[in-house]
Amino acid sequence: MTAHFKDRADAGKRLAKELSKYSNRPDVLILALPRGGVPVAFEVAKELKVKMDVFIVRKLGVPGNEELAMGAIASEDVRVLNENIIKSYKIPDRVIATVAANELRELERRERKYRGSRPKPDMEGMTVILIDDGLATGATMHAAVEALKTKRPAKLVVAVPTASPDMCKFFKKIVDEMICATTPEPFYAVGAWYEDFSQTTDEEVCELLKKAHSFPAE
């Protein structure tokens, strides 16, 4: 099994080629899912010379098996639950509420840290491109999509460097355009397709957002 990308910046440059028709457009806004989606989205926004911001989503992990998503929450009080997982693991409502409350605190912390005093971008009538470093369960991206639909964008695009073929099919049904640069099979995990998949830090996110704030003024 060979990695498809050197790191997230390399993945972003490759993804930008798939999105070239959106370059130099003032009606385009790229939204990154932090933290891993930010370095990818930064390269895309830089290449395309379009505006970029973050959209914060938190996965609701199954207690004791946190990697498995029973749902996700996003800014704007949106909650998406995976009823199949909840039923098969017999997760009671009070447990979901506790996990959601904890994740909401982290979501609000990140919102303060990453955004500071910058206002949230206006998305109405815009072409919004949601970017992450890849899709495994798709729960966080699904929550982001549902949250963004309430913002009435003119067009909603999801773009990722790598995802399973099934994930690409699923999102094709719920957004206006779905772009998967690579769809390896079997998929394993997002990190399997990167040589360097080290964790993106809060500091890196803040630094990249600060730099991206000058786009598309070049």
Automatic annotation (TrEMBL):
Claim: Mitochondrion is one of the keywords in the record: no
Gene3D superfamilies: 3.40.50.2020, PRTase-like (3.30.1310.20)
InterPro entries in UniProt: PRTase-like (IPR029057), PRTase_dom (IPR000836)
GO molecular function, one term: glycosyltransferase activity
The UniProt record lists the keyword Protein biosynthesis: no
Stretches assigned to the Phosphoribosyltransferase domain: 8-165
SUPFAM superfamilies to which the protein is assigned, alphabetical: PRTase-like
Superkingdom of this protein's organism: Archaea
Alphabetized UniProt keyword annotations: Glycosyltransferase, Transferase
Any Pfam family matching the protein: Pribosyltran
Protein name as catalogued: Phosphoribosyl transferase
The organism's taxonomic lineage, starting at the top: Archaea, Methanobacteriati, Methanobacteriota, Stenosarchaea group, Methanomicrobia
